[in-house]
Amino acid sequence: MFRRLIHSVVFVTVLALLALPALAAQSSIIEDGNRGRMSLDGTWDVIGVNGIIPQFPAPPASADWKTIEVPHDSAEPYLINKGAGPYTNGVVENAVGKDGKYLRNENAVAWFKRSFKTPDAKTIAGRRIMLYFHGLAYRSDVYLNGKHLGTSLQCLVPNSYDITDHLKPNQDNELLVGLTERDGIVDPQTRAALTPTSGVRAGIYGRVELQFLPNIRLDDVFVQTYVADKQFVLELTLLNKSDHDQTVTPMATVFDNEGVPSCELQDQPVTVKAGQTKVITLKKDWIADHLWSPEIPYLYNVRVQLRQNNQPVDMVQIPFGFREFTIKGTDFYLNGNKTRLLRISHLTYIPADVEKALTGDIRSGTMREKSGRPINSVRFHLGFNNEHQIRACDQLGFMAIPESGWYHVKEYNERGREKFLPNVLEYMERWIKLYRNHPSIVMWSLTNEHFWGRTGDVEMSIAKQVAQRAMQTDPTRPIQGDAEVTWNGTLPIINIHYPEGTSGDVRNVYPNSCLVIPNDLYWLKKGKLNTQAWRAEFVWDRPLVIGEYWDFGGDPDKKSSYSGDAIYDWQRWRFDKVKKSPDSPYIDVVRKSTDVYRLQGVAGLNPWSGQQEDIMPTRGTRALDFHPNFFAGEDATRKMIIFNESATSLVYPNLQCRIIVDGRTVWQKEVRVSGEAHNIQAVDVPIEVPQVSKPTKATFT
Hints:
Blueprint: H1 2-25, E1 30-32, E2 35-39, E3 42-49, E4 66-70, H2 91-95, E5 109-116, H3 121-124, E6 127-133, E7 140-144, E8 147-152, E9 159-162, E10 173-180, E11 186-187, E12 192-193, E13 208-214, E14 216-226, E15 231-240, E16 246-255, E17 261-266, E18 270-272, E19 277-285, E20 300-308, E21 311-320, E22 325-328, E23 331-334, E24 337-339, E25 341-346, H4 354-359, H5 367-370, E26 377-380, H6 387-396, E27 399-402, H7 417-435, E28 444-448, H8 457-473, E29 479-482, E30 494-497, H9 505-509, E31 529-530, E32 538-539, E33 544-549, H10 560-563, H11 575-578, H12 585-600, E34 604-607, H13 612-615, E35 619-623, E36 635-644, E37 654-661, E38 664-672, E39 679-688, E40 699-700
Parallel strand pairs: 25-26, 25-34, 26-27, 28-29, 30-33, 33-34
Antiparallel strand pairs: 1-2, 2-13, 3-4, 3-5, 5-10, 6-9, 6-13, 7-8, 7-10, 11-12, 14-15, 15-19, 16-17, 16-18, 16-20, 20-21, 22-23, 23-24, 31-32, 35-36, 36-39, 37-38, 37-40
């Protein structure tokens, strides 16, 4: 699989190099069956103007236009962000004052333009021509040859326009795009953001191209795989853009990764009326020979065709993996096997290229390095969803959790509800449709720390509409919200953040005791009401994900009860070390609490500090109790936790236990343990403590 991934990266790079002469000619179409595309990437002209919304016409050619490469990470200095870059913190307060007036009139609007030619009318005849933007931020106004094609507030998903009737074949066409900073998506009357924007900077951050499409075509294909029912389903959306009814025969062929046909599907001829769409379903009782999983991320390809007179009129090919992710009780199951999400959260800009998708920031390591060590899942935090990275998850075997860019509630107040909610719902549907064929995606995270414990009627009314739209768009995957608990039972997954600040039975009864280890680590109660977590009350009756957590926080005085005077060594535990070093007393508590969470059956864990290999190893053993003294000549026990969260069972595993004094083993014992895959167990180790004549320092291993 590693070799196949490298080949695919090289192929993409070579393809890009080969395309350069075609881009320079500005008139070559790359054909793929009945479809074609022509790139409009490259060097564009740009100019910043005053105002909040682009006002047509743009400045004349004699104005101070500069050049910029498209796509780009950021359009600065022509569009200058006043807030937190790609994050949406402070969107409203940075754009509009309390008096409802905008706070600036410059660096918030820019125009982008370029000219292009297409082949002659005869060459492109018989197809619809779509102008396709893979990423425009934030508010966009698009013009072609002076014609306004449309305005969009949807800045986190692609936008497209049918330009068939506006294009001048084999002549110069001028494409003009007006973009705003986030000021342009804030409503000054309600002081509310009008659309999700988290995860990108202003500019043309995605590719731009012309797509030449058949009049009768596949507008959408939704691949669905069901392991338990051994069923393969294709939901096809057919679109007829011609001026007459058309009849086509849908058919599909599945190929394995060697190109060998594995499954075929065909339906009866279907008639689609002129100018309309029709949704049909192809089904077959079939289960793939190879299931997709983190251990073996096997990918198939399905080729879907529409045929007329025994000839293909449209065809698309989609990679997929045959897998099924479900919920049973308080656990997650992948392909019928219980699995735990050992998770990391990933932040990167959306326009990352193929190489960045593999080597970009994934908190202390690249995606390739982190694959299976012990991380098996990635959350694309705060709307930082990138197609290249999700594709890398498909190939490397990460379970992926895309997260929407809808964040935070203070930017979407109740007064602006009627204006922003339709845009949020449209975004959710388009966002999920964009990625839902990726096998690595096991659930959708609808937001992060948005309502975060707020459960008022207004908030929950909005939440339920968002959840309903997501479930309608993809009924095959569960939904969650990081730190959103369950939205009063609407979400099938509990997700909480940072419970360690308020949890702990002993310290809540006796506050002066500070944290008591290990007692206070066992604060969770399955099947009962849990009230100790910060900003979260819930009955643990469904999978629980602790989406972000670290050490049991507070000042050093509150840690001295379990760390001793070492906690005051400020030179040793500077901030740059305290959250990372394996021997840090802070990290030690994260490690201990993670052990207990895993033992108790928490379904997903995402520690926000420490090294994942140290905090939650796939295989290993650690102590669960920490009594420091043994009494010579007496029998004792120590409770240990045994991890085997891999897909491979261990054959006749034994726990080897020793007491060592001055480098010499004075007692040893082998304890038989279970080697079952995807299993965590607690074991009481019986110890026959040897005799000594005086208090002796020893090590139990």
